[in-house]
Amino acid sequence: MKTTLDLPDELMKEAMQLTDIKTKSEVIILALQELIKKNKVAELKTYKGKVNLDMDIDLLRNRNAHSG
Questions:
Q1: Distance, CA of 15 to CA of 34 (rounded, Å)
Q2: Confidence band for 65, pLDDT divided at 50, 70 and 90
Q3: DSSP-assigned letters across all residues of 1-68
Q4: pLDDT tier for residue 52 given thresholds of 50, 70 and 90
Q5: CA dist 62 to 8, 52, 55, Å?
Q6: pLDDT beyond 70 at 41
Q7: Burial tier of 45 (Cβ tally within 10 Å: 0-12, 13-18, 19+)
């Protein structure tokens, strides 16, 4: 998708220097990917303490060995 953006020059310049990325498009793609990842991690953190992970590893291993 082709899009025209009005971005602060200093912000773009600093981002390109920090990441050692040579093109503006690549910097924006990385920024969007990181934003999405950050939000997904934050969403997963809402499950902290709400998911019971008390599992019997030996039982799980034996079950997988017999089903293969």
A1: 13
A2: low
A3: --------HHHHHHHHHHHT---HHHHHHHHHHHHHHHHHHHHHHTTTTTS-----HHHHHHHHHHH-
A4: confident
A5: 58, 21, 13
A6: yes
A7: exposed
For residues 54 and 10, the model is more confident at 10
Tokens of 58: 């030996």
**Tokens of residue 3, six digits:** 């899009």
Amino acid at residue number 20: D
Residue 59 has what pLDDT? 81
CA–CA separation, 35 and 11 (whole Å): 16
pLDDT for 66 equals 58
Q: How far apart are CA 14 and CA 27, in angstroms?
A: 10
